[in-house]
Amino acid sequence: MAGTELSVPSEQFTKIKAWELMPPKALEVVQEEGACRGREHLGPGNVEAQDTYGLLEAKMLEGERGLVLTTEESEKHIVTLQTVHFSSEDVQLQDVGWLTPQGREGVQGAVRQASGGEQSLLWLDEGSQQCVAISIQEEAYTLQELEVMQLHVLEGSVAVASEDTKFVVSLAESTGWVKLEKGQGEDQPSAEGGFRAQTQEQFFLVEAKPGDEGSDEIVLTISNLNVGEQEDRPASGQGHVEKANSTDNQKKAKGGRRWPVGVAPEVRAFVEWTAPGKPQEAKRPFCCDSCVFTSSRISSFNRHMKTHSTEKPHVCHLCLKAFRTVTLLRNHINTHTGTRPYKCGDCVMAFVTSGELVRHRRYKHTHEKPFKCSICKYASVEASKLKRHTRSHTGERPFQCSLCSYASKDTYKLKRHMRTHSGEKPYECHVCHTRFTQSGTMKIHVLQKHSKNVPKYQCPHCATIIARKSDLRVHLLNLHTYKATEMKCRYCTAVFHERYALVQHQKTHKNEKRFKCEYCSYACKQERHMTVHIRTHTGEKPFTCVSCNKCFRQKQLLNVHFRKYHDADFIPTVYQCPKCSKSFSRWNNMQRHSAKCDAGQGKPAASGKVRRVKRRKLAVLKEAGKEDAPKDATKEVSAVSVKQYPGETVPVCYGGVAVGNKDLDEDLSCEMILQMMDK
DNA sequence: AAGGATTCCGCCCTCTGCTGGAGCCCG
DNA sequence: ACGGGCTCCAGCAGAGGGCGGAATCCTT
């Protein structure tokens, strides 16, 4: 691209056909068709130190095409822009201060020696052919090379050019800014001249950009520079390189360069743009020194630079917040007033700007998604979303956690992740005040814990209902997924490949009293019960009290015995009905009583289940010849010790030993009653 | 230069899925 | 009493939608 030709001076020979000169502020060079064809590289070895001008002249003559230079008065001149190299052997170009090679066949030029040994070279041809060479001394270059851009007028004339007037276009040392300067002791320029001579130095910025697409044009703009404070400018010929400040050091670290004090950002931007080694596609002439902004237009660049300015002249009269532009202020005030002039025709939404409305309509109504992923079918309304999506393909994770190895694909996820380090839980349940790290987690919590009509997930293969979809997935995986390996029933020879089928099958064995006594007709469902039962036949009592040597068939009964008779600290727990103060040894019995208890109406009737248990126990007592036992056998027996369970599910205890947490096992309870009555 | 249009960035949100600990149930 | 299996639950991260607002582009 033509615009980038300037940016790679070391390897090319660039010609610009049309140059529209707009002094003193701007010069625009417009390249006509095919202007950037010729290229060649002239390395240091190709340049004879003794005949630098000869080289330039040769290159100049070599150009098949020229440039049309147009002054403000529409005068046109053909110029060339070319890049040549000078080697360090060009000793005559160094240490000569301002050199005016007068007498070299009408060519005037100057070589500048910077304090750091850097050079700027400029040429001004005032003969029939006018040549202006601009040198750019880059630190990135080896000092053995000096880049020179030559602007050469091939045809026409510059009205202001005269023997008495020398215009010097140079780059101040290592800054890249261009100085147009009237020659020593010269007169004021002609009013008709393209260059307006001045007694003071003027600094210009050369801006090159491609022309209209397809026209193969290049536009070169030379603009007045606003180079900060005048006193901060390095004087011409006295350029110096200050010790780099921190910002400069950062740039240096990134391969940048050191800058003299007072060099304006625009200047730096220009020189950075022209630096060799920079990818061509990345070369935009104006690079902000404070951020990553680049622009091909100085107008945009200047406007951008205002964003780094703290100047905000437009103040909101409602909140005193200041803004840089009127538009920003107006939009801001709209947020106060609620003014949203752009209303959606398809819904009630309204927006401050038209762009917001367009975007909204794409999201909600038209579903137009112009940004399409080249890898998958994803498409998005916004480019930034596509960019974010693309990271899911590339795996790029630009946002690295500073405390662990986690890296995120976007800033929000990193921010969210950081809560795992900080412990921050910004979301609080409004009901129970439990806090959560993510809003979604809290939402699920509220839904499952505090909401009615909680959605449940029905397993399609069984009756299981699960609160969360993710858990249903686990359920399906564990119970309804085909397994290659056979799963055998623990009670028979049946085999299954699905765990749910196995479980269901095994349940068919559940009510079978599979354990049958070999001495009597007793049968039971659990092997442990049969073990205990068998001891009634064998007389085996394997559990012996260490204090009194009394033996028991069951460990639990030994424990009850020990607590009751040998544990001085043992205090039976009693539960009282809060309404009538009736005492219960079991929490669940008390609860059951309390639910029906009306303290003013006397003792509630025992439930059917309680009655059945009592009858059974009293029958056992009677059979055992214990008819003098207390009438309230249940209370007497169990009011020894009760484990306290504050939850809803209450274990059933006998003598302080939990024997189950569901229905009474009557086999056990009767035996226990008998055992305890024996004591 | 002004102002509208467009682009870009950042933030917040939802939905989703995976994971592991806790507690319950059951054998 | 114990262990295994299951569900509940919170934590955490991936992906994407939607919008506010600032910056930049472009037209007049």
Automatic annotation (TrEMBL):
Lineage top rank: taxon: Eukaryota
Keyword Protein biosynthesis: no
Signal peptide: none
Keyword Protein biosynthesis: no
Keywords carried by this UniProt record: Metal-binding, Nucleus, Repeat, Zinc, Zinc-finger
Location of the C2H2-type domain: 286-313, 314-341, 342-370, 371-398, 399-426, 427-455, 457-485, 487-514, 515-542, 543-571, 575-603
UniProt feature, compositional bias: Basic and acidic residues: 230-251
Region: Disordered, residue numbers: 229-258
InterPro entries in alphabetical order: Krueppel_C2H2_ZnFinger (IPR050826), Znf_C2H2_sf (IPR036236), Znf_C2H2_type (IPR013087)
Protein name: C2H2-type domain-containing protein
